[in-house]
Amino acid sequence: MRTSRVAGWVALLLVASIGMVPPVAAQAPAAPVELRVMTFNIWYGATATDLGKVIEAIQAADADVVGMQEPYARLRRIADALDYYVSPRMHVISRYPVLEPQGSDGGWAYLLLPDGLAAIANTHLPCCPYTPYRIVHKGMDRASALEQEANTRVRRIDKQLAALQPVLAAGIPTFFTGDFNTPSHRDWTRAAIEARGLPYPIRWPVSLAMEAAGFRDSYREVHPDPVAEPGFTWTPGYPAPFVYDWDVHDRIDFVWAAGAAVSLESEIVGESRANADIVILPYPTDHRGVVSTFLVTPAPAPVFVAVAGERSRLGMGLDVTFHAPGGPGEHVTLRAAGSAAPVAELPTGPDGTTDTTVTFDTAGLEQGAYDAVLYDAADTELALDTVVLVADGQPPILTVADDTLEGDQELEVSWSFAPGNRYDWLGVFRAGVSAKVGSIKAWRYMDARIDGAARIAAGARGAGPWPLPPGEYEVRICLDDSYRCRVSTGFTVAG
């Protein structure tokens, strides 16, 4: 059983035999809380090493919140082992509840701290082409390096920072973890490149964009000298101690912070005392982790409602957390998505209740999408969030609009009850060919949607031309950037 450390947010379980817990009285301004935030790329889900060592590393780091990269659909296993909350769409695990209200769309989530909120974002920017390799091994000049960054990682980070602007503008302390696959301009200074034998200093644009958005590099705040304390995270080895002698070591994994979060400490998690503050042996991944300690002043919550996860087990209690104005007659309803008729309704609590969680009994409901809606006494909608209820053992359902394609016809694909991992993807393969050994003819991400539809056509990524050569094919749902594919459906390309 998970024990919440969130004082001041009252769990309100409404069933026939249990009454309402009285709300917490009005509180003084939020007291600062110490929070340890970690970024950790676990190298293909530690499938070639040891997932137990990944869990050990998080425990040794004593991380409260972890933004992970490459979990390969093993995030729930890690969270369960640690008794943490989990967001498969965000690739985040946490000791504190992780809430994704409507409008967050996988770009950020709230962390439910004592007396208020912080926010978390997490990224894994494109790895290739990797610009430091081009600079060191191919003689790429500074202008070409900056152009390459602009066309790859800058384009991606600009979109993510734009999605975060409402959270930052609201004054919510925000953390941004990730494998950014690019160094910091604070590490390629004149003094640092002379010490490392690099060809020239460069103002790396992703780190500049992060700072322009109001973020601070927690490691460099605590360790400002890149010569004395380089803090390299790439790479300890494949796995350690094996490292190519041509590799370019750098700091590309970051814990950024914005708003009311004071950096107290920042440590490297890795394979040896020479390169890390926290040592795990054998070390399970090709990136060192970073864990930073902050003194955070939680922000007051805006009015919101959020279901515990984008997907929930049918028949289990459905937790819905909210911040309400606290007026009389406020209530939360559960209704089938797109319907105005509630299937269940619960009061928010006694008058004056602003922050709490209600639990709906989902036994007897049908599978599918439902809206949790916060209303005032006049039934004015204050906030809404959506969840998909899925029966135990229900596999994803995958269909194609037309099982025979002719000419340059697009492949129209629909799915429901998908896992909702951040990087679940649709792949087109020759019928009967293993995803691990066969070429991917075409593919696209599912955008972490549990129910959805997409088209695969000319311009799709993959090894095959479009239209595909005549023959038998399968489209598959594959999990979280891995080659484990859950379901498939066949189609024919006519000759």
Describe the structure in your own words.
By secondary structure, the protein is an alpha+beta fold. The protein folds into 3 domains: 10-17 and 29-296, Deoxyribonuclease I, Chain A; 304-390, Macroglobulin (MG2) domain (Immunoglobulin-like); 397-493, Immunoglobulin-like. It has 7 helices and 30 strands. Strands 4-5-3-2-14-12-13 form a 7-stranded mixed β-sheet. It has a 6-stranded mixed β-sheet with strand order 6-7-8-9-11-10. Helix 3 (131-138) runs antiparallel to helix 4 and helix 4 (142-169) runs parallel beside helix 6 (205-212). The longest helix has 28 residues, at 142-169.
How many strands, what sense, and barrel or not for the largest sheet?
Answer: 7 strands, mixed
Derived structural class = alpha+beta
Any idea what the radius of gyration is? 24 Å
The count of domains is 3
The level of helicity is 10-25%
Would you identify the CATH H-level superfamily of the largest domain?
Answer: Endonuclease/exonuclease/phosphatase
Strands side by side in the biggest sheet: 4-5-3-2-14-12-13
Which architecture of the largest domain would the CATH scheme give at its second level? 4-Layer Sandwich
Based on the structure, what is the oligomeric state of the protein chains? Answer: single chain
Low-confidence stretches: 1-27
Number of helices: 7
